[in-house]
From TrEMBL:
Protein name in UniProt: Pseudouridine synthase RsuA/RluA-like domain-containing protein
Pfam families tied to this protein: PseudoU_synth_2
Limits of the Pseudouridine synthase RsuA/RluA-like domain: 183-354
MF (Gene Ontology): pseudouridine synthase activity; RNA binding
Species of provenance: Gossypium tomentosum
Listed InterPro entries: PsdUridine_synth_cat_dom_sf, PsdUridine_synth_RsuA/RluA, RluA_PseudoU_synthase
Gene3D superfamilies according to UniProt: Pseudouridine synthase
Length: 472
């Protein structure tokens, strides 16, 4: 009898090791596998890896808040819903239906899998959603149930019910480049809308209002905009006084100047500087673009497009002025260009590059569609063309991280607001409100101008690293 028990125990251990990590058969012959049109000779493909499990804390035994305590019973699905309160009930129920939720069992014969915890092997069995939890019972669920909360993080949700969790707030606050009591400066990532609307809820203004209020009753407000596809420095005001002065500062038609000379001088020094990668190269290395813009509707009656005004007097137009400077020679049909808008018009830089200069921005299919039809991704260069030596590319390996750069067949928009110079609003507000030329000792030592520089997004960094050695 004792021998039978020992044999059964050894058999259960053998079953455990065969389930979790089955060893490859010693007699297996090498097989031919094809990857990226290249044949390889190697061992047979490994089987599926064991599912990663996540352990919940032991069930405490007390009644859950909001539940009816008259029965004195807590089911397994109630315990999971209480622990994963941010995950939908249907997602939790589907894990029970698929038999993915398990509980530690003291009976090895009833177990269908094993797991190691605290150096000991624990047997697990499937649990139904209506089973009653016992004190100290430990439930195991797949990691996918926790990832459901992460995948739903960036879904469209109404701005009025936007409640970011700790990870979201930490991510948004890492975007903040500068913060004082008057303004907030962020480095906006690409593909994130700045202003929300009826179909757009997860916008920069809604996220900032919900997560970047800090110790203020209200969140910061937008004072200027960036396109959804572009990235870079975004300025927001934190008080009514600073928002009012920043709106005046970014208004193209400014009223009469203030009586404060320091404020007027700082306003004259304000500018934005963008970096862009364009297809082709401008005829002149630097210049000034003065091309008014007009808005039209396409044939569908819904899509709006910005074009260069024809100057015939029959259509409304807005003055648009942009300074540009070429940063280096054309490489693989592309050039890096520095843009400085002197007016703030919608899609001004994109239209001026595409139509006025004839060099659309890489990834801007809206205004450079015909040029992108002939787009060819940049080949992998191994030799420095000027020296003939091996070219040391500062780029990560693997195509997965090169998505969106010039190495991709479908690149993202290469337009980035890199530099911003503006008056020190926190220092200027006391002067403007009191109309005095004296400041407190704490403010007098601060600079009149603030300068910010933002790093480029990942896809532009890869393109820059590929081509920066050629820049002069």
């Amino acid at each position: 009898m004792q021998k039978n028990k020992l044999g059964h125990h050894l058999l259960s251990l053998a079953r455990y090791y065969s389930r979790v990590a089955p060893p490859p058969p010693a007699y297996a012959d090498p097989v031919i596998r094809v990857s990226n049109n290249v044949a390889y000779l190697g061992s047979p493909k490994q089987g599926p890896k064991p599912r990663q499990l996540l352990s919940l804390p032991p069930f405490p035994g007390h009644h859950l808040p909001g539940k009816n305590s008259a029965t004195g019973r807590v089911t397994a699905i109630s315990w999971l819903k209480y622990y994963f309160d941010e995950i939908s009930d249907s997602a939790i129920q589907s894990h029970f239906n698929k038999g993915l939720v398990k509980i530690e069992s003291s009976n090895p014969n009833a177990a269908d899998s094993f797991i190691e915890r605290d150096g000991q092997m624990k047997s697990l069995r499937k649990i139904k959603h209506n089973e009653v939890m016992e004190v100290g019972a430990r439930v195991w669920v797949p990691v996918s149930i926790a990832e459901t909360r992460v995948s739903r993080r960036f879904d469209c949700i109404p701005s009025g019910t936007l409640h970011p969790n700790a990870d979201e707030i930490d991510y948004l606050r890492r975007l903040v480049k500068y913060k004082d009591y008057a303004i907030l400066v962020l480095n906006k990532p690409p593909k994130l809308p700045v202003k929300g609307s009826l179909p757009v809820h997860n916008s920069m203004d809604a996220l900032a209002a919900a997560a970047l209020s800090y110790d203020y009753d209200e969140g910061p407000k937008l004072v200027h905009r960036l396109d959804r596809e572009s990235s870079g420095l975004l300025l927001m005001g934190r008080t009514k006084e600073s928002i009012s002065h920043l709106h005046w500062l970014f208004n193209d038609i400014n009223p009469a100047k203030s009586s404060c000379k320091a404020w007027n001088d700082a306003c004259d020094a304000k500018f934005q500087r963008y970096w862009a990668l364009v297809i082709g190269t401008p005829k002149e290395n630097e210049g000034l673009i003065r091309s008014p813009l007009s808005k039209i509707l396409l044939d569908d009656g819904k899509t709006e497009r910005v074009i260069l005004a024809q100057n015939v007097g029959l259509e409304p137009s807005q003055e648009a002025v942009t300074e540009y400077r070429v940063l280096g020679p054309m490489i693989n049909g592309c050039s890096w260009v520095e843009l400085r808008p002197l007016t703030s018009r919608k899609h001004q830089l994109r239209v001026h590059c595409a139509e006025a200069l004839g060099t659309p921005i890489v990834g801007d299919y809206k205004y450079g569609w015909f040029v992108h039809r002939q787009w060819k991704q940049m080949p992998r260069v191994d030799i420095e063309p000027r020296t003939g030596k091996p070219y040391k590319l500062r780029r990560p390996e693997g195509l997965d991280v090169q998505k969106g750069s010039v190495l991709s067949k479908v690149p993202l928009v290469h337009l980035h607001c890199r530099e911003l110079v503006l008056p020190n609003i926190a220092k200027s507000l006391p002067l403007l409100s009191n109309n005095a030329e004296t400041l407190s000792p704490g403010l007098s030592g601060k600079p009149d101008l603030l300068r910010f520089v933002a790093s480029m997004p990942k896809h532009m960094k890869i393109s820059w690293n590929l081509m920066s050695s050629y820049l002069v």
